[in-house]
Design brief:
Layout lengths: L1 H9 L1 H13 L1 H30 L5 H59 L2 H28 L6 H22 L11 H5 L2 H11 L7 H7 L3 H12 L5 H13 L15 H7 L7 H26 L1 H25 L5 H19 L1 H12 L2 H24 L1 H8 L4 H18 L8 H34 L1
């Protein structure tokens, strides 16, 4: 542990850059995903009042629901568009310039949402949410790639997990500011919606003082001097030679290769808390407790990922989450017979979030950064980002109908996905802890060779058995 702390002190400028990236980066996505829940009643009232003032009539409930659904879903649509654009933008302009441009767009977006109440224009909320979604989609992949590419091998797992830490921090900040004692009121909901503009401004002011990603400078731009300068600036003298040699090996492997083009359950925790007959006034604080639990568990993940490795956190995390969902489904089925089972559901939600934070939340981004070369990494994050946004859209729009049709049995879908994911990771994913991209690539090839050899042995055994039977 003392060695780990000394490494953190040694790379203090790198850690400062990670903080700047996190404040304006993945923090945005976590914040925006949670903040909309706290402004929902006020925005819907604002929609009604604006419509009445313009047209002299009250909105029908169906129209109000439709407008609200559009406001919510435009963020996810923008997120998918941002993911599609992020690969091209990071390849053409680099991670640093991409994030700076994104900060400018985000500030414009939050000005729309912030002044919508003054201008009495719900259209400004629609525009702002759509632009915020685009920015979140771009930020999500770009920040994780940037953080992974500026980290030395010994701190790579820890730094890759920081994106998940700031994601959880964003959700926690949203739930703190969304309390009625702070900005979660009818008079200040527009200020709460536009808070992301402040963190974007902080990043816009401080990020120019830090260098571009060393792998991007060397492998994409061919700027060897710029790469060495960035490494020295971030890691200090004498700490970059091995990493530079690994980059040169990757450059040799990918020579002539062009840049390729191309679960959460937490939306419905409030309903489960209501089922447990918790008082309405304390549900926001219990939800805040869920976010704090996720934040603490992700921070804990960052301290153990380089000790235990990625595979064990992923496989163990997914299997533990599946087990907790089985118990959650059981508690929901028995909640009418045993009242105390309702409170078990609340505890299991906390345990599910903790299992997610310690396992997949940090390990997924780390593995994605480590198994792809620079020429494929941007496209991999685009595909992963699209899957995430589609998953969020599915959860937000389809999951309520699944609940209506299947009841507690709807969790069987997620249990199956978690178990299948754990099996696939165990079978096909090598451990990436402390390995260069060339070493990881070789291990993938070795695993594929062993699989083909095993299949060949089975085929030969079958043929010999058939031959002996004929004799």
């Amino acid at each position: 542990m003392s060695g780990f702390l000394s490494d953190l002190v040694q790379y203090r400028k790198l850690l400062l850059m990670i903080v700047v990236l996190g404040i304006g980066g993945t923090h945005l996505s976590g914040f925006q995903m949670s903040v909309i829940n706290y402004t929902s009643p006020y925005i819907q009232k604002f929609l009604n009042e604006t419509w009445l003032e313009r047209y002299g009539s009250v909105l029908h409930q169906e129209t109000l629901t439709l407008l609200w659904s559009v406001i919510v879903s435009l963020y996810c649509v923008g997120g998918m568009m941002g993911c599609l654009c992020s690969g091209y933008l990071t390849a053409k302009f680099g991670k640093k310039k991409c994030l700076l441009l994104n900060d400018v767009i985000l500030i414009i977006a939050t000005l729309h949402t912030g002044f919508s109440r003054t201008a009495k224009s719900f259209e400004m909320i629609l525009v702002g949410r759509f632009l915020e979604g685009i920015c979140a989609g771009i930020h999500l992949g770009t920040h994780v790639q940037y953080a992974g590419e500026i980290s030395p091998k010994k701190l790579r797992g820890f730094i890759n997990v920081t994106s998940s830490v700031f994601f959880a921090l964003g959700k926690t900040v949203a739930r703190i500011l969304g309390l009625r004692d702070l900005l979660g009121t009818e008079d200040r909901w527009n200020v709460l919606l536009s808070f992301s503009g402040l963190v974007a401004l902080i990043q816009l002011l401080f990020l120019p003082f830090f260098p571009e990603s060393p792998p991007y400078l060397l492998l994409q731009k061919g700027d060897k001097a710029g790469c060495l300068k960035a490494m020295k600036q971030l890691w200090g003298e004498g700490n970059y030679h091995t990493e530079f040699e690994d980059l040169m090996k990757e450059k040799a492997i990918t020579k002539g290769t062009k840049i390729m083009n191309v679960l959460e359950i937490t939306f419905y925790t409030s309903e489960i808390f209501q089922t447990a007959n918790l008082q309405e006034s304390i549900i926001p604080y219990v939800s805040l407790g869920v976010s704090v639990s996720e934040l603490i568990s992700v921070i804990f993940c960052s301290s153990i990922i380089d000790r235990f490795g990625r595979r064990i956190l992923l496989c163990g995390g997914y299997l533990l989450m599946a087990l907790i969902l089985v118990l959650l489904e059981t508690s929901l089925l028995l909640s009418d017979q045993f009242l105390w089972m309702r409170y078990c559901s609340v505890v299991l939600i906390f345990l599910f979030i903790i299992a997610y934070g310690i396992g997949p939340a940090g390990a997924v981004s780390s593995v994605t950064n480590e198994i792809f070369t620079l020429s494929t990494r941007a496209s991999a994050f685009v595909i992963g980002g699209i899957v995430i946004w589609l998953g969020l859209t599915f959860t937000g729009m389809i999951f309520p109908f699944a609940v209506m049709l299947l009841g507690p049995f709807c969790f069987l879908i997620f249990i199956a996905v978690l178990i299948i994911s754990a099996i696939l990771i165990y079978l096909f994913l090598p451990e990436t802890k402390g390995k260069s991209i060339s070493e990881i690539t070789e291990e993938f090839k070795t695993r594929q060779f062993k699989k083909k050899r095993h299949q060949a042995v089975e085929v030969n055994a079958t043929e010999e058995k058939t031959f002996c039977t004929k004799l």
